[in-house]
Specification:
The chain has 184 residues and is mainly α. Among the domains are: 28 residues; 90 residues, no CATH class. It contains 5 helices and 2 strands. Strands 1-2 form a two-stranded antiparallel sheet. Helix 2 runs antiparallel to helix 3 and helix 4 runs antiparallel to helix 5. It is elongated, with a radius of gyration of 50 Å. The termini are far apart.
Length: 184
Amino acid sequence: MAICQKCGIQVVEGTAFCPNCGAPLAQPQQAPQYQQPPQYQPPQQQYQQAPQYQPPVAPPPYQPVAPVVDPSDHTADFDAEDISANKVVAMAAYLLGILGIVVALLAAPESKYASFHARQALKLEVVNTLLSIVTVVLVWTFIVPIVGGIAVAVLFVIRIILFFQVCSGKAKDAPLLSKIGFLN
């Protein structure tokens, strides 16, 4: 039993306040009890094994790669002599328009190189003529003459590209016109 220090009444041990006067009762000092720290518990995850060492695999033996072939380049189809002998005639096909095509066909009738470039120049002339006709017929619209003018300018650039290919001894299909199936 404990005694209240304010009013002197006996109080049951462990009571915090006096039931008579309400004063707080002093608790006997207890020595702190030593608590053991918790034991280390390893995480409950499963460890993965490190992958086994495998020696590097030797690369496959060298295999030559086939060269890339441009399907529009026909230079290999012609003799070097034919190209050098008829280069100027092939240039005329691009420089002089229809007259150049006739000159190329008449000046070198046996030359496959000159006839190839005469066909390419003929494609340019046919497409240019068709564009001109469409532009003239639809001149009353606003957009068709503008698009026709741009297309004629593009054809002129293609003509210049083909001319310089002839100068370098190449025989390539006309860009953008190679998709047109006629005169192949």
